[in-house]
Amino acid sequence: MSLQYRPVPDDDVDEFRRLLTYAFSPTDTHEPLDEDEELPPPAQPGARRGIYDGDELLCTGTHHWFTLDVRGSKHDVPGLSAVSTPPWNRRRGLVRRLLHESLTEYRDRESWFSVLWPFEHPFYASFGWATTTDYGEISVTPDALDFVDDVHPDGSFVELDADRWADLEAVYREANDHTLAMYRTEEWWRKRVFQGWEDEPYVAGVEREVEGEETLVGYLVYRFDEDGDDRTLTVQETCAVDHDAYVELLRFCRYHDSQVGTVELYGRPDTDPFDLVTDPRDVSIELRPGPMVRLVDVERALGVLDYPDDATGSVTLAVDDDLATWNDDAFRLTVEDGRATCEPVGELPADEDATLGVGALSQLAVGYRSAGRLREIGRLSADDGTVEALDALFPTEEVVLREGF
């Protein structure tokens, strides 16, 4: 058996889709595309990859070439999705091979970070990815949002279509100034926001007059879900430039009281409406772990990160990474006035060391977890001085990757 990692050609797209359907929607019947039929729009973005044995596709994956904010600067951060292997090909190390080859490809492209949404967090944690975002699932009845009835409207509602994607991007950029915020492309807006896998979602917004012009200040993407006689307004994404615009989006949900019994929203943990509604017990919020992050190349990633302007320090990190072996080493990180150098040293000095896995280092690097917290939960071994130095170099950040892929 001679295995190859390579791009999936157009002739194999149906087989690629068949394997994905079996892996993630086994109760659905795979419908092959007609010869002149295009892929559904949400399936079009991304670069398909596979592990092949000759002409047989054994394992699948898709790379999305994202640009994300990492500590205040733009970075190429590939997103990995659609990883699947059918049962007849499992327990052969194919996914491990796909993940290793993917990291190698990212490294060749000089992309030093990667992200993914896991089907199981422990599975990808075993390969070096680590949780990087928490999000809240908020459930509330329209009547519980009646506080908006006493708030004077600040704007007007508008329906939005894909041709206004640039206006939505402007709102998104203003409202998302945190680490892992995406710089969305027109293709992403048109094919992944305004298009759904089965039905097109609804997209509505709030406009108000700004310097004499009606300007979009908030939007939401939503659908209706039915379970018997129960109907839910499921809001997939909300985005507002300020609190008043967010209240107007809640007003929009409130005005569906004759159509739905429940409103469900997904968002950052800090956008909960406990302090807005009359009775906070009318709101249910479930905090859930979200996507995961991984350093592709420790030396290069730590060397290009932005550090606090006044940050100065030096620390040696012993990194455990059995998937990307180029990371399985000791690295000397030196920062002077916010400028960093990082290089492998091979051995730790006896009097100063920190030991951690690449997943924990990834959380530290993007600001999701502090060094103190990582040591507290047993994912970092270091003395007090090293922890203090790491926390000065890597202050925690608000880290939110909200896009599904």
From TrEMBL:
Domain N-acetyltransferase: 3-152
TM segment ranges: none
Gene3D superfamilies: 3.40.630.30, SCP2 sterol-binding domain
Any matching Pfam family: Acetyltransf_17
InterPro entries: Acetyltransf_17, Acetyltransferase_Eis, Acyl_CoA_acyltransferase, Eis_dom, GNAT_dom, SCP2_sterol-bd_dom_sf
GO molecular function, one term: acyltransferase activity
Signal peptide: none
Keywords, alphabetical: Acyltransferase, Transferase
Stored SUPFAM superfamilies: Acyl-CoA N-acyltransferases (Nat), SCP-like
EC number: 2.3.1.-
Domain of life: Archaea
Name by which UniProt lists this protein: Enhanced intracellular survival protein Eis
Gene name of this polypeptide: eis
